[in-house]
Amino acid sequence: MSTGLIEGQALANPDGAAADLIINDFSIVVATANGTGSQTSNLAILRALFKMGIPVNGKNIFPSNIQGLPTWYHIRASRDGYTARRHTSEILVAFNQATVIQDIQALPPGGICIYNGDWRSIPQRDDITYYAVPVNEFVRAADLKEKKLRDYIANMVYVGALAYLLEIPLEKLDEALMFLFRGKRRTVDSNMGVVRAAYEWSAANLAQDHPYRVAPMNETEGQIMMTGNEAAALGAVFGGVTFAAWYPITPSTSVIDALNDYLGQLRRDPATGEATYAVVQAEDELSAIGMVIGAGYAGARAMTATSGPGISLMAEFVGLGYFAEVPAVIWDIQRVGPSTGLPTRTSQGDILFTYYLGHGDTKNVILLPSSLRECFDFGYMAFDLADTLQTPVFVLSDLDLGMNNWMSEPFAYPAEPLKRGKVLTAEDVADRGFARYKDIDGDGIAYRTLPGNEHPLAAYFARGTGHNDAAVYSERPDDWKNNMARLARKFDTARLLVPGPVIDEPEGAQIGIIAYGTTRPAIDEARDRLTADGLVTSYMRLRALPINDEVEAFIARHDHVYVVELNRDGQMHTLLSSELPELATRLESLALLDGMPLTARWVVEAITAVEEDRPRRRSANGRGRRGATELDLSGNGSMSPGNDMPRGDSGLTDMGHDGHNREVIVEEME
Amino acid sequence: MTDTTTPRAGRVNAIGLAQTDYKGLPSTLCQGCGHNSIANQIVQVAYELNVRPAEMLKLSGIGCSSKSPAYFLGQSFGFNGLHGRMPSLATGALMGNHTMRAIAVSGDGDSASIGLGQFKHVLRRNVRMVYIVENNGVYGLTKGQFSATADEGQELKYAGTNEFPPIDICMEAILAGCGFVARSFSGDAQQVRELMKAALSHGGTAVLDIISPCVAFNNADTSTKSYHYGKEHEIPLHGIGFVPSEEEIEIEAYDPGELRVVEMHDGSWVKLRKLEADYDPTDRMGAMHRLQWAQENQELITGLVYYDGSRPSLAESSRLGDTPLNALDESRVRPGREALAGLMDGLM
């Protein structure tokens, strides 16, 4: 099953002590049922490895469901620091009988399977190693009446077994649980009791007949680990957010959960309870964005967080925000659409929708975070941009970045004070007069006043209807045309203010790659691999829209540029082709949408396939092929979890949900 | 423009503003439209209550009614938003600056159809504002369709017969938890003014359902939303008088059998001279019953239908301080370096 590319390579132990050991370079997949409390166990393993100094990333592949449907948690340990998803995991914790057949099938040769020894049977393969753990024994020993707690204990059992088999020190698991339970010693002790018992049982009964081990490194020293949504919320707090309105929707809900948490700690007077912020849960996304636009008009730093279906409902108000020129920050934690789509799977499918959101001629500013650090930085910068440009600013994260745990260097305190943009005080109005939509500076950005300004000339009537410089209703053709031309000018100013692309252009690069957002780890890894294979690549990572001259220049310097993204139609490819028509023939779309985070393997194979094919195709039709998909590639496309499962009973093809899908996915932490 | 309130030259109120200082642009609504009369009452009320233009915010949705904030308080900030979405816009704006007072103008299409959800939810949250529904039972700008408040069985030239029961703004408001629910008739200017003054003194959302005839599309004598019907059939529940907080009120002098006095959030008073002997506007079920009776019998009851000043406003339950959110300086909204460093340490 392994292609030999990137994955499944046996590496010698750096110490040279034991031959053929694979140290700190493998993936674990934990297959459980949703709602059994496995998240705590998985996060404990993840954070223990992190605390050992090993670069790790955890990805929760979960269903749209509160309880019962299959969940897979992927943990990748990579001594080389790679954090992208891998197609295959060498270590399987098979704790879900409903998926065990497919889960075992997906193991690569030489893999190991830790499973519940109480099951009557399990599919047998002779090229993998099995470890049966008598889960019920531990559960009985714990003597618990509630089923939920029994499930919970069962999950701590695999933590102990893995700790023995991989050699994860118990004190690191203890530290990890102390973090997860926020220092509650008693809770940690009761969990560690089960972990230790399972560890000791494993030591007495299991043989380490497999090559996978962890060993301490110092690659995570001084690093933090959290989710992108938490980082986004923290960025907003340090951006001086004063108002948030929202409606619950996966996968954005944890942005607001974290926001409430941080604001409660940092922005509420502990003595009086007085708050310097307000967070309002709205009745729907129409109302959430309405409140945000209202608050932005008043001069608050206002934000919302949502996902695709919420963006659909916000279209009307975003158009008003664009036209009435009201600052707002909208976090779109993208999930798979169209429609309700796959509510718990990741995508980059809202690029075109948000860029043009609003009827008539509307274009919006978009930030594209690719890491925790950028979630934090863009978290505060988005407010500065929205205030400076007086327009709604989107931040397009996604489920993978938002809900999964990532490593990062610690965040740096904002270097500059808050940028509140062109706001006139009463004295300013007295000195220079005021016309709300007059372009005094030639950058398309007019001056505004905030409600409460005491000067008699400060007030204006904001409106979504046609208006002149003074914000007075107007149907004059010239007023309309001039105002829209000014808004276009303002959008050009935005090109200079948004974060530019990050470009890496090594000597001898033959092709270019353009990507953005959370494809970053897969691209980084793929480029290393391509370089090793003799194909040196340039890389431009877009951090915002609209694009600037650097983007154009990068493309112009390359004959062939791949635009890699997680959607069906190659939305960024479409957008770049439309903005830079004279360069469009140099761009080739590599777009994939199966709901899963991108793998380096896919990128390598997709680029390699086109590169091998390119000379022939060129002579055949003289132009690049659009939209290579996984179907075009050799190999088994079924390696994503759930693909091999029978239709209808997998929980993946028929979620059985209520069609509304706004439930919060419960993380059982305690 | 209909203008019934031209003041004598040179007169100013206690803060030195003339009544003209509270005016807006000339109205572009039809001659005789009830909405113009309401706009004029707002001008007069603001003048009489010595409202500072800078402390007042005007909000509206879309429709004939929603145009009217352009026609009053020209020195006050305003936002003419989206159809049916004024309540959310108002909520945000008034959380952005909760020290401001607000007059929001909506219509029956705006609040009872496209915006019914937002109407109900802003009342649940109790955002401090006067929420006027200029209710004429018909869509004017799109030329004569029935609105959701039109009477069942009513006939209109263009729209035919209305087959559906009406939505009652006041009943919906009471059900949603609103603590100030009043109905009036734009032809009864004096009552509109007194109710508006009382509404401005309320600490939460105050709903004024003002029957405001559409002279173009729904003014036949048979319509319960017409001038003729209103003039002939208005049944005031009480005579209403507003006493500002600055003035002394001598409660002891009144016979409780004839007069009810209600103290408002800001210390002012509303005097209700009893016309319907048993009507008690603090009795929620009684108010619902009376409204139901009125609807069934096509009665235009007017006055303060329901009052309960006990619920906190959204700004209060959000525990906002004296400084509005839009005026907090950086030191109060951006935590310091040590706060970030501490959080980072905790995530390692």
Largest sheet of chain A, in brief, is: 8 strands, mixed
Protein structure class of chain B: alpha/beta
- Average pLDDT of chain A, to the nearest integer? 90
Shape of chain A: globular
* CATH topology heading of chain B: Rossmann fold
User: DSSP strand (E) fraction of chain B?
Assistant: 15-25%
**Structural class label of chain A:** alpha/beta
Descriptive overview:
The complex is a heterodimer of chains A (670) and B (348). With 670 residues, chain A is α/β, with parallel strands linked by helices. Chain A has four domains: 22-220, Pyruvate-ferredoxin oxidoreductase, PFOR, domain III (Pyruvate-ferredoxin Oxidoreductase, domain 3); 226-408, Thiamin diphosphate (ThDP)-binding fold, Pyr/PP domains (Rossmann fold, 3-Layer(aba) Sandwich), CATH 3.40.50.970; 426-497, no CATH class; 502-632, Rossmann fold (3-Layer(aba) Sandwich). In chain A, the strands form five sheets. In chain A, strands 10, 11, 12, 13, 14, 15, 16 and 22 form an eight-stranded mixed β-sheet that branches. Mean pLDDT of chain A is 90; it is low at 1-17, 619-639 and 646-670. Chain B contains twelve helices and 15 strands. Chain B is an alpha/beta fold and 348 residues long. Chain B has an eight-stranded mixed β-sheet with strand order 2-1-3-4-10-9-15-11, with helices on both faces. In chain B, strands 12-14-13 form a three-stranded antiparallel β-sheet. Chain B has a two-stranded antiparallel sheet with strand order 5-6. In chain B, 30% of the residues lie in helices and 21% in strands. Chain B has helices at residues 34-48, 64-67, 86-96, 108-112, 116-125, 169-175, 189-201, 227-233, 284-296, 314-317, 330-333, 337-346; strands spanning 56-60, 77-80, 101-107, 129-135, 138-139, 145-146, 155-156, 160-161, 180-185, 205-211, 234-236, 238-243, 259-263, 269-274, 300-307. Classes of the chains: A alpha/beta (670), B alpha/beta (348). The interface between A and B is large, with 73 and 60 residues.
